[in-house]
Amino acid sequence: MVMEVTEKERWCVVTGGRGFAARHLVEMLVRHEMFHVRIADLAPAIQLEAHEEAGLLGEAMRSGRVHYVSADLRDKAQVIKSFQGAEVVFHMAAPDSSINSYKLHYSVNVQGTTNVIDACVEVGVKRLIYTSSPSVVFDGVNSILNANETMPYPSKHNDSYSATKAEGEALVMKANGRNGLLTCCIRPSSIFGPGDRLLVPSLVAAARAGKSKFIIGDGSNLYDFTYVENVVHAHVCAERALASGGEVSAKAAGQAYFITNMEPIKFWEFMSLLLEGLGYDRPSIKIPAIIMMPIAHLVELVYKLLGPYGMKVPQLTPSRVRLLSCSRTFDSSKAKDLLGYAPVVPLQEGIKRTIDSFAHLTPQNQPKKEVNDRVQWKKQIVIAIVILITLYLNFVATTGYSAILIPVLVASMIFFFRGIFPEKMKLLGSKKDD
């Protein structure tokens, strides 16, 4: 079936259009009546949430200004079909970055992006804006302070997501000029805001489990967080710059751009502001990254063994520890100069809006925990003891490095127990209820 597009209609496609930032981009495009929007995503049909159904998106879908198409980027035929008649493609689709599967990330971020580029060239798309990541220049070891786009890709990345994102980004920039296609890459740093399904929900879950009290590292590492509305605004700025023609588009095309709120902040201060705003305690116990790293490696090993049997993706992984303890700030001057980008929402206002949007996650709005918490923590203790004994027998007893590893194991057990015990059952640093 060939999609029919009238001459008066200008269409764009948003791949991964049901993702966090992509939903905000779709709404911005509809609100400003820039294009008719085709949302391309994996689900066979779109399922609108109640507020979407009653809001701008639902109205736009009923009027025909927004269409949904099911498409797997790994299937080139599906990609070509979803791009027919489109003038612009915002390529925002990517797998969950917390899943460290090279096969998955390569199939979407590299092979899928290759299909996106080929489809753009084949059907005559004029502009392609690719959502990349600042992690394409992060080696997982060295902190980054105010880096600009001259910083090269490292010889080794922090994880498979970053490595394949870098490959996809390079393909997009190389494709600039093919059959008249203009491209550029947006590198938004640490996106947050209403509708986020990872950062804030994970923070609250950790707080409710008593695990949000820890600071990995010394707590002084700086970060650039970017409010989601600024991220989608940067995408629109990029599209407008590429569409401008002449010297403006010539300079803007074929480039990558760091996008931030231009307000660096200490990573753990940002987390504390979110937690406090939602009614939870600030993290206060500092754990050196050198202690957390062997625990994270162990957790990753356990996940590799038990993941196929249904174990959830762990939050504590080596790449995550490195992300939480390093500084990562970026210079957005290039985006300002060539795209006309400037944040439209200040950092503190973005934090306030985010907290307000998650009011349902405050302690007073949470259901009471059931008695099975006791059963759950008993299971966790048994698992922890078995793992630590196994680690001791395999690494301490056989290698002779007891002077180094035994303190690490003891510290691991202390921090683990401190994190999993329900508040009324803390043995370490507990306080009586008032």
Automatic annotation (TrEMBL):
Organism superkingdom: Eukaryota
Keyword vocabulary terms for this entry: Membrane, Oxidoreductase, Transmembrane, Transmembrane helix
Keyword field contains Transmembrane: yes
Keyword Membrane included in the entry's annotation: yes
Residues passing through the membrane, by range: 381-397, 403-421
Residues covered by the 3-beta hydroxysteroid dehydrogenase/isomerase domain: 13-288
Signal peptide start and end residues: none
Matches recorded under PANTHER family: BIFUNCTIONAL POLYMYXIN RESISTANCE PROTEIN ARNA, SHORT CHAIN DEHYDROGENASE_REDUCTASE FAMILY 42E, MEMBER 2
Family assignment from sequence similarity: Belongs to the 3-beta-HSD family.
Name of the protein in its database record: 3-beta hydroxysteroid dehydrogenase/isomerase domain-containing protein
Gene: A10p007540.1_BraROA
